[in-house]
Amino acid sequence: MALPEPAAALTSDDRCAVAIVGGGAAGCATALALAARGVEDVVVVDMGRAAGWRLGEALAPTASAALQRLGVWEAFLAQRPLASAGSCASWGRPELGYNDFIVAGQGKGWHVDRAAFDAMLAAAVPAQGGTLLRGLRLGAVGRAADGDHVLELHGAQGDVRRLRAGFLVDASGIAAAAVRRLGVARNEVDCLAFVAGVFALEQAEAIPSQALLEACADGWWYAAKLPDQRLMLALALEPRRQRHFLDRDAWLAAAHQTRHVAQWLAQGQARAPEADGLIAALGPSAILSRVVGEDWLAVGDAASAYDPLTAHGIVKALQDGEAAAHALAAHLQGAGPAPLAAYQDGVFARFRAYLRERGALYARERRWAQAPFWQARLAG
């Protein structure tokens, strides 16, 4: 299919076999895995994301196999990601404990520039035969007389474009923008708030290669070194407390009251973000009531979103995309509804396992059991 460039308006006759709403890791992984399975005529609608830091900077060793299967391994290595030995955590005790990838026989992981990583995946979509449309916002989702989905896409200049699709994939993240318009309910178990910033490091070599997790009364801190001598630091907390910590001075004061995070900042001679440089985000634990329909499915965080504490992150997005593509390709190639049903069963089963994992992790930290953040998580 030859679609016009984003600057040109689509007409009502533009149609694709599969439209993927969302150009992040899950959406692009789905498109790339579909291409590998011989599915053609796939359009990815990249609605764009806010500039700056985003959750999910760490990549576990298991990502390497997925990146190779998706055909982007060499492009990934060309970004020169920082090698990571694993993670360390002050969780349930003041001292650090270590989870070493190499000792565990997993190989090395990486810390990545997430914006560059996502851009690398997006660039691979047209390179492998798909179509990538950028800078569009999803409006209404309707039906054509023949049953096709009709997506109303709004451009930055106020122009409206329409795209018809035989099958719709929602990869729009926690918003689940497409399937929520179809009336699918979302079940939220919990929701964390995050306040994050990026520090410049004068002495980057003084910061270990592991990611750092440190519990505190208000929630927990996560720190990881990034390429280009930077350090990402995020505080997870109750949503009602987010506004207070968006004040940079309050956020920095809390960071310096920690034991291990404060030590990293001192060792790296970290320069704080600008006063307006903090970023707010939400991290729900949630799942859709259904993740597939007769001619649609949801993938990645649109289908099921996990607490970042469990460290599934980017690997989950890649593996979810592969699982969705496997099911969708089989469905489109004549296998009927069974592959889609099996995909949904897998999403639900993995979410149940995740809830058990999450519960066990929070149960290990009881030093602030009476603090509101911990009361809410320990009660679950």
Tell me about this structure:
This protein has 380 residues and is an alpha+beta fold. The chain has a domain at 15-85 and 109-188 and 286-360: 3-Layer(bba) Sandwich (FAD/NAD(P)-binding domain). Helix content is 32%, strand content 29%. The protein is built from 11 helices and 19 strands. It has helices at residues 25-36, 63-69, 73-78, 114-127, 177-181, 242-245, 248-256, 260-267, 313-335, 338-363, 372-379; strands at residues 15-21, 42-46, 58-59, 82-84, 86-90, 97-100, 109-111, 131-134, 137-143, 149-154, 160-170, 186-201, 211-216, 219-226, 230-237, 270-271, 279-288, 296-298, 304-305. Strands 5, 6, 12, 13, 14, 15, 16, 17 and 19 form a 9-stranded mixed sheet that branches. Strands 1, 2, 8, 9, 10, 11 and 18 form a 7-stranded mixed sheet that branches. A 3-stranded antiparallel sheet has the order 3-7-4. Helix 1 (25-36) runs parallel beside helix 4 (114-127) and helix 9 (313-335) runs antiparallel to helix 10 (338-363). The radius of gyration is 21 Å and the shape is globular. InterPro entries: FAD-bd, FAD/NAD-bd_sf, Flavin-dep_Halogenase_NPB. It comes from Xanthomonas indica. Residues 16-345 form the FAD-binding domain. This is FAD-dependent oxidoreductase. GO terms for molecular function: FAD binding.
Concise summary:
The chain has helices at residues 25-36, 63-69, 73-78, 114-127, 177-181, 242-245, 248-256, 260-267, 313-335, 338-363, 372-379; strands at 15-21, 42-46, 58-59, 82-84, 86-90, 97-100, 109-111, 131-134, 137-143, 149-154, 160-170, 186-201, 211-216, 219-226, 230-237, 270-271, 279-288, 296-298, 304-305. The protein has 380 residues and is of the alpha+beta class.
